[in-house]
From TrEMBL, chain A:
GO annotation, biological process: nitrate assimilation
Top-rank lineage group of the source organism: Bacteria
Keyword annotations from UniProtKB, A to Z: 2Fe-2S, Iron, Iron-sulfur, Metal-binding, Nitrate assimilation, Oxidoreductase
Primary gene name: nirD
Molecular function terms, GO-annotated: 2 iron, 2 sulfur cluster binding; metal ion binding; nitrite reductase [NAD(P)H] activity
Source organism per UniProt: Parasphingopyxis marina
Phylogenetic placement of the source organism: Bacteria, Pseudomonadati, Pseudomonadota, Alphaproteobacteria, Sphingomonadales
NCBIfam families listed in its UniProt record: nirD_assim_sml
InterPro entries (alphabetical): Rieske-like_NirD, Rieske_2Fe-2S, Rieske_2Fe-2S_sf
Rieske domain span: 5-102
Protein name (database record): Nitrite reductase small subunit NirD
Annotated PROSITE patterns: RIESKE
Automatic annotation (TrEMBL), chain B:
Protein name (record): NAD(P)/FAD-dependent oxidoreductase
Swiss-Prot/TrEMBL keywords: 2Fe-2S, 4Fe-4S, FAD, Flavoprotein, Heme, Iron, Iron-sulfur, Metal-binding, Nitrate assimilation, Oxidoreductase
All residue ranges annotated as the Nitrite/Sulfite reductase ferredoxin-like domain in the record: 562-627
Residues in BFD-like [2Fe-2S]-binding domain copies: 425-471, 488-537
Native species: Parasphingopyxis marina
Residue ranges annotated for the FAD/NAD(P)-binding domain, each copy included: 8-283
Residue stretches making up the Nitrite/sulphite reductase 4Fe-4S domain: 636-774
Any GO molecular function: 4 iron, 4 sulfur cluster binding
Residues the record lists as binding [4Fe-4S] cluster: 645, 651, 685, 689
Binding site for siroheme: 689
Cofactor: FAD; [4Fe-4S] cluster; [2Fe-2S] cluster; siroheme
Keyword Iron-sulfur: yes
Length: 112, 823
């Protein structure tokens, strides 16, 4: 096992065009997203606008639309799209052998 | 005369890379080396990628041999076939083979390729489990196919689909199991994967996506494959095609550096200066490859370094084609998108074509083509050359002939202008350029007008660009591109009405089918069209509709109302606004047990429990269900509430039993999904205590019967109802209400309340459909009640029973220095 990556479970638990949450004790809850073609992304589960839970938004292409006020956030960069300005931190993830791995350092950033 | 001692080159692996390397070396310097090739397979060198056509019966083994025995003899090569090398002694520069033979070398080339990966589920080693890598595997499959029966192929990638195709043509019943939601997800996007799946299914294969193999079942031979969800699929053979692993064992044991593959430098040299490696077994600049194109380039670099002088291999850009006859599919590069990327999409449903080219800073970075791959190589070339395509941007999706047609043709409008008058523009409706232009000259100045008058681009929409081009050319500055009715969203040129009509006409039943047939310009829509399409489909096909939770807004996905802090509020149904001690106790208990922040009486006569976490929702619902309460749908584009006053039972002014009627109305219409929220009220007399005249459907009871009111709402734009008609009995009131709801469900645009809808279509139209046309009314009512038989299921109870449990649970939890994963 590689100490830099945390295994957080099988990728098939993440529905296509869906999201799941990953609380971090003492840190920021993470939202994991899966796009139509199976790519997985991780962002803090907080819209830069009014902290809406991005994990509950609608995923399309590589964007998620926040459920509270329809801000569109890029899953690649965490940046708000269009007219809106703001950015949410992204966390590196990879899928290997059907399991999701998340970068330990970034996932724990800010956690005590 | 002393014979000059030549250097001795020994090759491990008589496969595609090993032999190609030898060919390249011989082409440069045929006299340089004494060559010995070891091959584990008992045969000469053949074209591995053509094993698929051999399986399918399109080719024989003899036809796919690359180098026959004469080639080895003519070039003085010694082939040791059917004998694998089992150890490398680097110090003594010597090899040992399985048969016990030793062979010394001056230079050694490792080209051992890959091994198929076998998922280690129980039963993976049963007879009848076959991989797909070499001729022996093909022969095993052919022998099984002789006996007929059922084949299960695990893996819906390139290899798996080619195996499935071959076995299917050989007469077996074929089921493909694929873990991911779409086939070939590494090479295809969802849209293309959907087309591929549909085509294979139409041919008669069974394709199961999201299928996770738990076990291969059988006593002494495979009998079935069992999935994690419990499904069991009978199988006479199981083909495992889930991936490959570079074959690095020899190198690893010899102490060479090995990552995912044998690590080599740009000259294909390992960390030992006399040992080289090429093909799928190597890792170069961090990459391993699973296709043949890179190994041609590797072998060139290797041969240069071993003869005339090093030139260096710099890595490869690859593209994929599927070798299944009748299916044209091409994919290259990266099409995961992103904001600095731009998608150019073209769909032609009539011809089953989907093309997507992804541009980044005016360069092609990826392409997916389905149905027409003629331009695949051209896109691939532009991509590899990193060519600036801004000049041909507008026309690029139409392909090379069109885009590089030179000067005038690169402008699509000029290309349209160049067409002759009788050129067919709209293939679906057979409309020529001439008739479109004359329609425009006769005053059809917008796309909608042209569609209305000629039908051009009104069916599949793929020629919309051409029609708009004709408008621009014909009207010049006067054409503003304005639409009479706005398209649904930026993903399509079709309006809501068009989309609904076409869903019915073309019998489209799934969102990807709509997007393909109606030429959506985005790969998977957006947050405005997806929920709308999901609604249109469920309304059009109540019996068959499969819910797509990912196309629902959060409230409808979680069956509760999201609040600004991310918690949820829960409103149980109280029929007609009537409650009792048992329900009130259950609500009070829930409030205490889950520490709800607030309980509020709503405007619709319900109790709203605030501050519930999404993880607690199923437990809250279970408690409310236990007291007989179901979802109040306070979160949905659905029937919300039926508000009532106390009516003739208690009130001294009451003229009719307004509470009783309200309860009947609510029992009839709860659970129904609508274009927007829908509220009903029943007032027992014209004093109208239930505020029926600002509801979508209101009833005001009078002595002589019931006044039916429609199209009201509170909210930002307050609108009082219009009187639809007056009826005499409760039965009629219920029938008219059901018919009205169904008309609204079938004809309003998604997210239209009844008020703007009625203003658009006119009250007279609604009266004509509901009041004057008695037959139509009863048909509408019947369709509503039919749909209700599918919709009246308490979504809370379904969740309590475990449906969509993942929506309410975290995937896992991270505690610093320890991760606790699901499963
Ligand atoms: C059915 C099928 C279809 C394919 N279709 C395509 C396609 O359409 N396009 C594409 O680009 N690619 C395709 N591929 C992939 C392509 O065939 C491989 O990328 C290519 O064969 C790799 O060449 P290689 O020489 O590295 O490995 P191989 O061709 O596998 O050669 C390795 C050889 O080394 C031998 N060997 C291994 N270990 C030893 C040992 N210790 N001693 C002696 N011999 C040993 C093996 O038996 C094997 O014969 C396909 C593959 C398969 C199986």
């Amino acid at each position: 096992m590689d100490a830099n990556w945390l295994d957080i479970g099988p990728v098939d638990q993440l529905p296509a065009l869906g999201a799941r949450t990953l609380p971090v004790q003492g840190g920021q809850e993470i939202a994991l997203f899966r796009t139509a073609n199976g790519k997985v992304f991780a962002l803090h589960n907080k819209c830069p606008h009014k902290q809406g839970p991005l994990s509950q938004g609608i995923v399309h292409d590589t964007t998620v639309t926040c459920p509270l006020h329809n801000w569109r956030i890029s899953l690649l960069t965490g940046e708000a799209q269009g007219e809106d300005k703001g950015c949410v931190p992204t966390i590196p993830v990879k899928v290997d052998g059907g399991r999701i791995f998340i970068a330990r350092a970034e996932a724990l950033a800010g956690a005590r | 005369m002393v014979k000059e001692q030549k250097e001795k080159l020994v090759v491990i692996g008589n496969g595609m890379a090993g032999c190609r390397a030898v060919e390249e070396i011989l082409a440069r310097d045929p006299e340089r080396y004494d060559i010995v090739i070891f091959g584990a397979e008992p045969r000469v060198n053949y074209n591995r990628i053509m094993l698929s056509p051999v399986l399918a019966g399109d080719k024989t083994f003899d036809e796919i041999v690359i180098n026959d025995e004469a080639w080895y003899a003519d070039n003085g090569i010694e082939l040791v076939s059917g004998d694998s090398v089992i150890a490398i002694d680097r110090e003594g520069k010597e090899l040992r083979s399985r048969s016990g033979r030793t062979e010394s070398y001056d230079r050694l080339l490792i080209a051992t390729g890959s091994d198929p990966f076998i998922i280690p589920v129980p039963g993976h080693d049963l007879p009848g489990v076959i991989t797909f890598r070499d001729l022996d595997d093909v022969e095993k499959m052919l022998a099984a196919a002789e006996r007929g029966g059922e084949a299960v192929v695990i893996g819906g990638g390139l290899l798996g689909l080619e195996a499935a195709h071959g076995l299917f043509l050989r007469g077996m019943e074929v089921t493909v199991l694929h873990l991911m939601p779409t086939l070939m997800e590494r090479q295809l996007d969802e849209a293309a994967g959907f087309l591929l799946k549909t085509e294979l299914e139409n041919r008669g294969q069974t394709i199961l996506t999201g299928a996770d193999t738990a076990e291969i079942v059988g006593e002494s031979h495979v009998e079935a494959v069992k999935l994690k969800d419990g499904t069991e699929i009978p199988a006479d053979i199981v083909v495992m095609a889930v991936g490959i692993r570079p074959n690095v064992r020899l190198a690893l044991e010899a102490g060479l550096e090995v990552g995912r593959g044998i690590v080599v430098d740009d000259d294909m040299r390992t960390r030992d200066p006399s040992i080289f490696a090429v093909g799928e077994c190597v890792e170069h600049r961090g990459l391993v490859y699973g296709l043949v194109a890179p190994l041609w380039e590797m072998c060139k670099a290797l041969a240069d370094g071993c003869t005339t002088g090093a030139t260096g291999y710099r890595g490869s850009v690859t593209s994929t084609k599927l070798k299944v006859s009748g299916i044209d599919l091409f994919s290259a590069g990266d099409f995961s998108g992103g904001e600095d990327c731009e998608d150019v999409v073209m769909r032609d449903a009539a011809r089953g074509i989907y093309k997507r080219v992804v541009l980044k800073q005016d360069r092609i970075v990826g392409a997916v083509l389905y149905g027409d791959t003629a331009d695949g190589n051209w896109y691939f070339d532009l991509m590899r050359q990193e060519e600036d395509v801004s000049d041909i941007r507008e026309a690029i999706i139409f392909g090379q002939a069109f885009a590089s047609g030179g000067g005038a043709l690169a402008d699509p409008n000029a290309a349209v202008a160049a067409l002759s008058d009788d050129a067919e523009i709209c293939g679906c409706n057979g409309v020529s350029k001439g008739s479109i232009v004359s329609a425009i000259l006769d005053g059809s100045g917008t796309l909608d007008a042209v569609r209305g008058c000629t039908k051009a681009s009104a069916s599949c929409g793929s020629c919309t660009n051409l029609v708009e081009g004709l408008l621009t050319i014909t009207l010049g500055e006067d054409y503003s591109g304005e639409r009479e009715v706005k398209p649904m969203c930026g993903c399509t040129s079709f309006t809501h009405e068009d989309a609904r009509r076409l869903i019915l006409e073309k019998e489209l039943k799934e969102i990807p089918a709509v997007m393909q047939e109606l030429h959506w310009t985005t790969p998977d829509g957006c947050s405005s069209c997806r929920p709308a399409l999901n609604y249109y489909l469920l309304c059009a096909w109540p019996d068959e509709h499969k819910e797509d939770p990912q196309s629902r807004f959060v409230n409808e996905r979680l069956h509760a109302n999201i609040q600004k802090d991310g918690s949820y509020s829960v409103v149980p149904r109280m029929w007609g606004g009537i409650t009792n001690p048992r329900e009130l106790r259950a609500i009070a208990d829930v409030v205490e047990k889950y520490d709800a922040g607030m309980v509020k009486v709503t405007g619709g006569q319900r109790l709203d429990i605030f501050g519930i976490q999404k993880e607690d929702l199923p437990a809250v619902w279970a408690d409310l269900n236990a007291a007989g309460m179901v979802s109040g749908h306070a979160y949905g584009k659905a029937l919300r509430t039926v508000k009532t006053c106390v009516g003739s039972d208690w009130c001294r002014f009451g003229t009719q039993d307004s509470t009783g009627l309200g309860i009947k109305m609510e029992r009839m219409s709860w659970g129904s999904w609508m274009p927007h929220k829908f509220k009903i009220a029943v007032s027992g007399c014209p004093r109208n205590c239930a505020e029926a005249t600002i509801k979508d459907f209101g009833i005001v009871c009078v002595d002589s019967g019931y006044e039916l009111m429609v199209g009201g709402n509170g909210g930002i734009h307050l609108r009082g109802t219009d009187l639809l008609c007056k009826v005499e009995t409760e039965g009629e009131a219920l029938e008219f209400c059901a018919a009205f709801i169904q008309l609204y469900r079938e004809e309003a645009r998604y997210l239209d309340r009844t008020a703007p809808w009625i203003e658009r279509v006119g009250l007279d139209y609604v009266k004509q459909r509901i009041v004057e046309d008695a037959e139509g009314r009863s048909a509408l009512r019947d369709r509503f009640l039919h749909a209700q038989t599918f919709l009246q299921k308490d979504p809370w109870a379904e969740r309590v029973a475990g449906a969509e449990a993942h929506l309410h649970q975290h995937l896992a939890e991270i505690r610093p220095f320890a991760a606790v994963g699901a499963e």
